[in-house]
Automatic annotation (TrEMBL):
It comes from the Bacteria. The lineage of its organism: Bacteria, Bacillati, Actinomycetota, Actinomycetes, Kitasatosporales. This is Apea-like HEPN domain-containing protein. It comes from Streptomyces griseorubiginosus.
Length: 316
């Protein structure tokens, strides 16, 4: 018989209200589905942040895989209804325990071992099976002591204050460091850039053309009042440059620096395109590693925008 497991993590500020250490979701003869903590079998569900949906009693791998996906959706719907959250690890780094590692640890521990992977894992039922997660590895970025001292001393001498937009942008930039996924980091960093943008008016000819479109819309009796009003509001916004144009103009202030091997305005366009892909419901989500690399370079990009006069007074 085949089984499935779907691990997920809950944030510590929103936990389950179940006091047992296992909760049955389905009990139909051989077919069983239950919710349990990952790791400590005696831990109560209400105290757990790492949990697993387990299913057993399926005749084929395909059936177990389909049921795993179905029960993930069941939990997602239920969590939304009671205002809870779960990270199923779709955008997290992959567990680095290899097949060879599974064999090694199985021999070492005296019972079968499989890697603890995100998403739906299907496996054959076998006594004593354990799941092993790779240790979490996090890097730490720390400037040299000399550089830290010199930058602080120069900043104190310059006293280059942040304006209101820059303060909001710095809060968003800093908040991105606390985000666990590359997606959320990139989105917060693009939000930080957006707060810095001051959109400029388009050319006189462009504004005249927009005004003509607004008047044509206003006089179009084939449209309903809500349609006319909505279109007019959208058209009025066209009197100013787009977010993309404003962003590229701001990015050019960082020239001749490059980011991910690209000119600042080209790099900004690439990041803003990625932001649109992440937020506009594309089912085929971009590769996590691509987003991670882009977010790392965008972090430097935003930091340089916020460094003010220190960027030129204290070059790299």
């Amino acid at each position: 018989m085949y089984c499935f497991r779907v691990p997920f993590t809950m944030p510590s500020q929103t936990l389950l209200g179940l006091t047992e250490n296992q909760f049955s979701l389905q009990d139909e003869g051989e077919r069983q589905v239950w919710l349990k903590p990952f790791g400590d079998a005696d831990q109560r569900l209400c105290d757990a942040t790492d949990l697993v949906i387990r299913g057993a009693g399926y005749a084929t791998e395909d059936e177990a895989a389909r049921e795993g996906e179905r029960w993930r959706d069941v939990i997602s719907r239920a969590f939304a209804r009671v205002h809870l959250a779960a990270d199923f690890g779709d955008r997290q780094p992959v567990n680095m325990v290899t097949k060879a590692g599974e064999k090694f640890f199985s021999h070492l521990m005296g019972h079968p071992v499989l890697a603890h992977l995100s998403g739906v894992t299907v496996f054959e039922d076998q006594p004593g099976l354990r799941f092993l997660g790779a240790p979490s590895v996090k890097g730490c970025k720390r400037p040299s002591e000399e550089r830290n001292r010199l930058v602080f001393e120069q900043a104190a001498r310059l006293h280059d204050p942040l304006n209101g937009r820059e303060r909001v942008a710095f809060d968003l930039y800093s908040g991105s460091f606390f985000q666990p996924s590359a997606d959320s980091r990139l989105l917060m960093l693009t939000m930080a850039i957006e707060t810095l943008l001051v959109r400029q008016p388009r050319s006189d000819d462009a504004q005249t053309h927009v005004t003509a479109m607004i008047e044509a819309t206003k006089g179009n009796t084939d449209l309903t009042d809500p349609e006319r009003n909505s279109l007019r509001m959208s058209l009025k916004d066209l009197r100013s440059e787009s977010i993309g144009q404003a962003g590229k103009r701001l990015a050019r202030t960082l020239e001749p620096r490059t980011y991910a091997g690209q000119a600042p305005d080209v790099f900004f366009s690439r990041c803003y395109t990625m932001r649109s892909v992440l937020t506009h419901g594309h089912v085929e989500r971009p590769d996590r590693r691509e987003v991670d690399a882009l977010a790392a370079s965008l972090e430097l990009f935003v930091a340089d925008l916020l460094a003010g006069r220190l960027l030129t007074e204290f070059p790299d």
